Write the structure tokens for this entry.
Amino acid sequence: MASSSKKQTVDSQFIITKYMNYVLEHDEYPRSVYKFCKASKIKEEEFYEFFGSLDSVNKGIWNTFFSTAIDAMNNNKEYSGLSSKDKMLTFFFTFFELLTLNRSYVLLSLKYHDMPLKNLTQLKGLRKHIKNFAKELIEIDNDEKLFRIAKNPVSIYSEGAWLQFLFLLKFWMDDESAGFEKTDIAIEKSVNTIFDLFDNTPLSSVLDFGKFLWKEKSMWN
């Protein structure tokens, strides 16, 4: 009698899922590809078809978070008609919802090494994706402006979007509010502030955002 069980197809998503489960179950990264594959019942040659090292899996997880968020947004027929600011808001809300669904893994991975900068190396690919996403948004806005003097500097804006993400990531990691509602507030205020800065109407929004950050900092201390 033929077996009813069906062999799971090994692809990048399958390996990422197994990897995240391994990290959560062992409270540490696997020490070698061999040990990870043996524990996950994956052939090493199957692993190397999709990833060159365990470090590339770490980076691949964050790239997958990004692509999943983008796909989810593009599948919403209303997304294409949003303003650049609302697209950025939608991205951050969607991305941090994904992080929340995987919070245990994300916190472990971002606090794994004693040196914070070493933990951030896994975000290298994500940095490129977020900067490119921001560039596309500001280029669309620039195309709608008649005068060169009114156009926003693309490189500065994209780098600002990345720094904004790092701030929100740290904020989310430390957020203990119900449903991470304070992170939602931080996302909205920070995006509104950034776009107000580029639209030359910054003062009230910057002050409002500054007061929010000061209040949160005071509470942390």
